[in-house]
Amino acid sequence: MTARPARRAAVDLVCLVGTLALVLVPLLEVYGGPSALVVLVAGLLLGTATAVVGAVRRWSAITVVATVVVVFVLAGGPLAAPATTVAGVVPTPQTVLDLARGTASTWKQVLTLQPPVGADGTLLVAAWFLSLVGSAVAVSVALRARGGAAAAGALVPVAVAVMVIVLGTRRPTVPPVLTGLVLAVVLLPWAAWRAGLLRARRVVATGVLVAAALAAGLLAAPVVAGADRFVVRDELVPPFDPRDYRSPLSAFRQYLKEDAPLFTVTGLPEGARVRLATMDRYDGVVWNVAGDGSAQASGEFRRVGAQIETSARGERVRVEFTIDELAGVWLPTVGQATAFDVDDADAADGLRFNDATGAAVLTGGVRDGLRYTVEAVVPRVPEDGEVGRAPASDLVQPPQAGVPDVVLVTAADVARDAGSPVQISRALATWLAEEGYFSHGFDISRTESLSGHGADRITTLLGGDLMVGDGEQYAAAMALMVREMGLPARVVLGFVPEPGGAEGPVEVTGADVQAWVEVAFQGYGWVPFDATPPPEQTPQQEDQEKPSEPNPQVVQPPPPPPGAVTPPDEDTEQPQTEDPDAQDDDGALWRILRTAGLVALPLLVLATPLLVVVALKARRRRRRSRAPDTVARVAGGWDEVLDTARDLRRPAGRLATRNESARELATAFADTPGGGVVAARVGALARSADQAVFGPGEPSREHATAYWADVQETVHAMAHSVGWRRRMRARMSTASLKDRRHRRPKGTS
Length: 749
Known about the structure:
alpha+beta; five-stranded antiparallel beta sheet; 23 helices; 17 strands; 11% strand; Papain-like_cys_pep_sf
C-alpha cells in the first residue's frame, strides 16, 4: 500500500465502490424495504474497509479471506438473520448455520418469490453476500495486484451487475441502459489507466466506439428484441405454497353438498381409494399440509418428468380421470403415481407432485373437462396380524400446536391395554367408530353436529356427553390421538366411490367423500385406518339424556355424575412405544453434533491451506535433519536458519556467503529483544557450517546432531525475538516454500 500513491488508491475506491453501489440499487426494489438499504450500505463499507486494512497491513490472501468470513458471520447475524441472534446482535450457532444455508439457497428463494420479497428468514443473505464479498474482492485486487493485473478489479462490478439482473424485476429502479453506460464510461478508462495503456488517441477512439455501441443499442434493440425486457423470474413458475390455500379438510361438508359428479374415473381397482390431499400439520385450528423444506413434508411439491421413481410395491394400474365439477388446485390421484399424462399442455406445465404423500396439484387449478391418466402402484393394505409388533417408522413430522388436553387423556385411557403400535392405532380407530355417532349436521332437529375440527370442536367431540360427527371430526381426532401416543400419523382427504364395472367409468360425487388416517410402520409404510362410525349409526331421540320422572312411593337417588376419564398411571397403564427422554436426549445430542459439524466444516476448509503449509515445513525440516550425508545435514541446518529469517520477514541476501548472511541477520535482529544472542549464535553457526563444508574430511554424526541442536535453539531465539502475531504469521508464511534460485555461498565450487 505504501508503494502506491494515495491518489491512485482513492481513484480505485471511487471507481470500483461507486459502480458497485450503482449496480446494487435495483435490489432495493426487489426486497421492497429499508432493511435492504442498510444491508447493502453496511456490506460495501465493511468489505471496502477489510480490503483496505489488508492492503495497508500487507495481510496474506488467506488472512483477508478469513477476515471476510468472520465479518460475514459477526455482522451478518444482526443484518441478515437477526431472528437467530441474542438480543438481535450477538450471533449464535444457529446464525452460522442459517447464514451458511442461506448462501446456497437464498438465490432460489429470491428468484421464485414475487417482489417485494421482504426480509423474512435468510432472504437478505443474497444482498449481504453480493455487497460484502463484491467490494472486498474488487478493492483487494485493485490495491494488492501489481501492474496490469490490478485492472481485473473492473470485472467484479460487471459480475455483480449480472447477478442483480438475474434477480431483478422487469422495470428496475435504475434503467439497464444507464447502468451499462456508467460501467462502460467509468470502468473501461479506469482499467486502461491501471494497466498503463491509457493514451489520448485511445481515449478518443474508445469514446467513439462506446457512443456508436450505445446508439445502436438504444435504436436497434427495441426493433430487434421488442420493447419487453426478458426477466428470469418471469420465466419461472413459483413453487406451490400450501399456505396460500385453505385446509382441504375444512371443505369436507362442502363436497357433501355437491350432487353433480365431481369427476369420473375409469380403471379404478376394487377397494382402491382416490387421494385428494394429505395433511400432517395441526395448528389448533385445522389440519393442513406443511411446507417446512424437509423431504417428508406434505407441502413440498415439485415438477416431475415422464417417469416418477417409487419404492412402493403393489398392483400396477392405469387410471383415467375426467374432471367435471371439482374445483380447486388439488388433483385426484390413486396409490403412488409413477407417471402422469395430461392432455392439456398448459395444465401439464402446472403439475406438481409430492413423492412423500402421493398427492398432486395443478398450480393453475383444475377445470371442467380436464382429462389425464395416472400410472400408479397401489400398495396392498396389510392386516393387523401381519404388521404384528413392527415399530413405528422413524419420521420427523411438523410439531403439533393447540392440541386440547382431552386428546392425550382419552387416547391413553382407550389404548391402555394395547401393546404394539398397530394395536394402539386399531384400538383408537375401533373405539371412535363404535362409541361415536355419525351425523353431517344437516338435520339440526335431531342432534347438533357442527363442522370444523379446531381445538374446541375436538374437545366437544371427545369430552362431551355425546360423541357426534362425521369423517372430518373423527379423522382429525384419531390423528391427534395417534400423534399424542408417539406414532407418526397424517390425515387424508379423498373419495371412496362405489365400485363400477370391470372397465366402466365411475362417477364420483360429494357423497363419496371420506377422510381417514394413515399411520407409518417400519417395513409396511403408511397403513390406512378408518375411525368414522357407519352412516346408519346415528343418534336417536332416546339416546339423548332425559330427566328422570320420580316415583312418588320411591325416593329416587340423584343421577350419577358424568364419568370423568382419569388419566392412567404412566408407568403401568399408558403404552409407550419408545422412551421419550432417551429420544429427546438423542435428538438434542444429534442437533449439537450436527451444528458443531456444520460450524467446524467451513473452518476446517479455511484452515486446510494453513495446515498444508505447516506440514510442508515440518517435512522439509525432518528431511534436512535426517539427511544421510553429514555435510548435507549441517548445510541443511544453516538453510533452516535462513528460511526462518525469511518467514520472519528479515531475509539475508540471496548471493551472500554464510558469514555475510550471518552479519546481515545480526543487523536485522539487532533492534529486537535478544538480538545479541541471535547475532552470536548465527555467527557461530555460519563458521561451523563453512568448516563442515570446506574443511577436510566429513563431520561426525555426533557433530551434526549437536549442530542441529544449536540450530533449534537459534531458530527458537529468532522466533521469540518478535511479537506473537508475527511469530504466528511466520509459521503460516509461504515465503520460504516458494521457488527460489539455488543459493551457493561465494567461493564454493
